[in-house]
Amino acid sequence: MARNRPTFKGLELNAFQRRAVESIEQDHSVLLSAPTGAGKTLVAEYAIQKTLQEGKRAIYTAPIKALSNQKFRDFRDDPYAEVGLMTGDVTINSGAPLLIMTTEIFRNTIFEAPERFDDVGWLIFDEIHYLDDIERGTVWEESLIFAPEEIRLICLSATIQNLEMFGQWIRSIRKQELDIIFDAKRPVPLEHRLYHAATGEIRWEGLRKAQQKASTKTRPDRQRRGGPRRGGPQRRGGRRQQHFGPHEASRMLLDQLCEDDQLPVLYFCFSRRECEIKATRNAYRALLKGNDRRKMQRVFDQICQLFEIDWQDDAELSFLRDRALRGIGFHHAGMLPIHKEIVERLFTSGLLKLLFTTETFAMGINMPARCVCFDSLRKFDGVQFGYMKRRDYLQMAGRAGRQGIDKQGLVYSVLDTEDLVNGPLKRVLFGEPEPIVSRFNLSYATLINLYERMGRGLVKAYEKSFSFYQLQKGGHKKRATVRAAETARILRKLNVLEASGYLDPGEGLMPRAKIARQINGYEIQLTELLFNGTLDQLTPGELAGVVVSIVYEERRGDQMLVQLSKREKRFAYDIEAAIRRFTSIELQNGFDQTIKLPDFGMLPATLSWCDGCDFEELAHYTSASGGDVVRTFRMAIQMLRQLQHALTKDYPLHARLEQARIMVNRDVVDAKRQLELG
């Protein structure tokens, strides 16, 4: 007779979940690595329920605001948990027993008000492998190092190569016992296939034959990128060679998947523009008919009604609706947040059959499909185009296969001839996931907070980093060299802070530092402007424009479509000059990269927005996408709030910062309203 297996929330626990639950019951911290969609979140939910029953609080951190918002909604519907949210954009019920936070907010709170965590029993890090992120990874590392020592951890990770070493490092910096749990088994196995226009579908065992066939049937990629030559197919070595356009393989693959009823499909593209192009090119497909089409229309209109928007007054939303009625959608970061949310809800409903999306859709959001397709295995990493990491491939491919519905998930990679013949296909599809690499790099705000406690002794903080721990396997000479280099880097930053009037060896934190320590992200820029006095001369709208200029990072192709006025040019010059006081000191101390200088490309749009214009009118002032505008405005709101919080209420600037924040935070920019409506 089969033994009764334990269950939680009506679900039978699998092997790794049972091991994790045993660890939690023993009050051990847990580092859990398992494939996407395998059920890691259930372990976190068990720890949350346990700590709430014990009368303590739980913190759930997530790497992106969209995932934080989703978790908030999930727990908001749980009758046994009172939940709050803090993302920078939104603060709701911050004293709740269960608090959802972005990891940055958690790290900031550690230094600003650690007493808020006195009654916290468990801290969950979702997507802990984000520690490897080049720009933001240090936040996870700092959070692990400096989190209050009494808190126990649940660290959820995708599959990584150096899990054991990562876990041993956590054990070295935390006082609680930590159990490392790894499970490679997917609840729905994946079948990895390739696709080329000249050969059609390719199974792995037939790769060599397909490579030969593709090489003889197609012209070299550098020729076919320019389109077909006159005179039809070319001959080489006596054989006719065919031209296949860059969209041909995609069309043929989707024809096959639709014919074989392998829907729904998540189709990953690595550019926003390509997502929309493909959605338009496939608009001829009628993937919804009859009752399903009527149901989609009803669901779409109900979602719009929920968020109090009219698709008939919104050209982009009307375009999305037209595609949705055909069962097709697209999703990327350039879209308005409300539009992205509508698409996500449509996909969750099961009515959206073909979704073209960028990789952000795969980040933690639980929306599986029957089939996943990659438009390419090459992507831009912020510096150059190259073949994607195995770990990134797994994150996206893992969305294939729905538990309880599919026996297997299908994953297709569309390749051109160059990729098929010479690409590192075995590494990407079947290799070992890359190890986590430390990105430890203390910000100025973190250094200031540590300096108050440790003085220049804070240079020893590096010795707690994962980077330093990883050196233990290297030779003594290498360890000494790296330690000296990292110590020198921290000391250079301290020298800059002392030379610029933030720190004093005798007096400790100077007035500038006492402001900067309360701001995270652009702490130096805002502090320099405050002490320079430039902000005191500005209107609330201009204050908003300056802060937007500090956080705004222009994407390739973004343009400011109107000229700055004389007054705007004058205060833009003053703003940049004030910040250059600090960057000049950085350069004198040997820094190749300085803090970010302001970019005034969105200043006219911000001023018009603060004057009350409609969101659609901003297209007259900037070519930036709606999603980028909203994201920039929301970041600016966060900075305005932090600067305001750092000032006493009787400071004249305090009230104008409040006015500026209110002027920006309206309509589609208002994240809290969107969350409360939905």
Q: Major sheet, described briefly?
A: 8 strands, mixed
Q: Under the CATH scheme, which architecture of the largest domain would be assigned?
A: 3-Layer(aba) Sandwich
Q: Please state the average pLDDT score.
A: 91
According to CATH, the fold-level topology of the largest domain is Rossmann fold
- C-alpha end-to-end distance: 47 Å
The CATH class of the largest domain is identified as Alpha Beta
Q: Which percent bin holds the helix content?
A: 40-55%
The CATH superfamily of the largest domain is known as P-loop containing nucleotide triphosphate hydrolases
* Helix and strand composition category: alpha/beta
Strand arrangement, major sheet: 6-5-7-4-8-9-3-10
The coarse silhouette is globular
Number of distinct beta strands = 23
Q: Tally the helices.
A: 27
Indicate how many domains the architecture comprises: 4
Radius of gyration: 27 Å
Provide an overview of this structure.
The chain is α/β, with parallel strands linked by helices and 678 residues long. The chain has four domains: 14-182, P-loop containing nucleotide triphosphate hydrolases (Rossmann fold), CATH 3.40.50; 190-226 and 240-430, P-loop containing nucleotide triphosphate hydrolases (Rossmann fold); 440-517, no CATH class; 519-678, Sec63 N-terminal domain-like fold. 45% of the residues lie in helices and 13% in strands. It has 27 helices and 23 strands. The strands form six sheets. The protein has an eight-stranded mixed β-sheet, sandwiched between helices. The chain has a seven-stranded mixed β-sheet with strand order 12-11-21-18-15-17-16, with helices on both faces. A hairpin with a 2-residue loop joins strand 13 and strand 14. Helix 1 packs parallel to helix 2 (40-53), helix 4 packs across helix 5 (137-146) and helix 22 packs across helix 26 (652-664). The radius of gyration is 27 Å and the shape is globular. The two termini are 47 Å apart. The relative contact order is 0.09. The model is unreliable at 221-239 (pLDDT under 50).
